[in-house]
């Protein structure tokens, strides 16, 4: 049970157990909380009661747009993380604080990928030089 549920009233379901507080993330009720049977997706007792009042259409639109924007940012973060081939590259959350940095993000992603390629080539050159030096030393 989370803190939010501790602050809510004890509402009993049809079966006599306490209803759980859930949050809807559908387009028609984004972020709206409701009480339900904990087995509402299965064959529970069928109890359902809204906790929050219905949102205005403007609020629904804003929340849904924020959800979509958040999803896009998470995908961009995952793409940036995929470009890095080793762990020491840092965190990109600071770059993504402002949602209007798409051009900067694209440039940084290209630069990171380019630097990673150069890093891998440098490692390969160092390994080759080391092999040549070892073979010359052993002869």
Automatic annotation (TrEMBL):
<protein>
    <recommendedName>
        <fullName>GRF-type domain-containing protein</fullName>
    </recommendedName>
</protein>
<keyword id="KW-0863">Zinc-finger</keyword>
<keyword id="KW-1133">Transmembrane helix</keyword>
<dbReference type="GO" id="GO:0008270">
    <property type="term" value="F:zinc ion binding"/>
</dbReference>
<feature type="transmembrane region" description="Helical">
    <location>
        <begin position="119"/>
        <end position="138"/>
    </location>
</feature>
<dbReference type="Pfam" id="PF06839">
    <property type="entry name" value="Zn_ribbon_GRF"/>
</dbReference>
<feature type="domain" description="GRF-type">
    <location>
        <begin position="6"/>
        <end position="54"/>
    </location>
</feature>
<keyword id="KW-0479">Metal-binding</keyword>
<keyword id="KW-0812">Transmembrane</keyword>
<dbReference type="InterPro" id="IPR010666">
    <property type="entry name" value="Znf_GRF"/>
</dbReference>
<keyword id="KW-0862">Zinc</keyword>
<keyword id="KW-0472">Membrane</keyword>
């Amino acid at each position: 049970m989370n803190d939010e549920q501790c602050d809510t009233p004890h509402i009993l379901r049809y079966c006599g157990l306490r209803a759980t507080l859930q949050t809807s993330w559908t387009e028609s009720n984004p972020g709206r909380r409701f009480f339900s049977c904990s087995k509402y997706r299965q064959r529970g007792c069928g109890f359902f009661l809204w906790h929050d009042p219905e949102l205005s259409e403007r609020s629904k639109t804003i929340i849904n747009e924020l959800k979509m924007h958040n999803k896009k940012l998470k995908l961009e973060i995952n793409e940036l993380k995929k470009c890095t081939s080793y762990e020491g590259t840092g965190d990109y959350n600071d770059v993504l604080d402002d949602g209007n940095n798409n051009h900067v993000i694209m440039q940084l992603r290209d630069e990171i990928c380019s630097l990673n390629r150069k890093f891998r080539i440098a490692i390969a050159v160092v390994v080759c030089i080391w092999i040549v030096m070892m073979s010359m030393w052993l002869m």
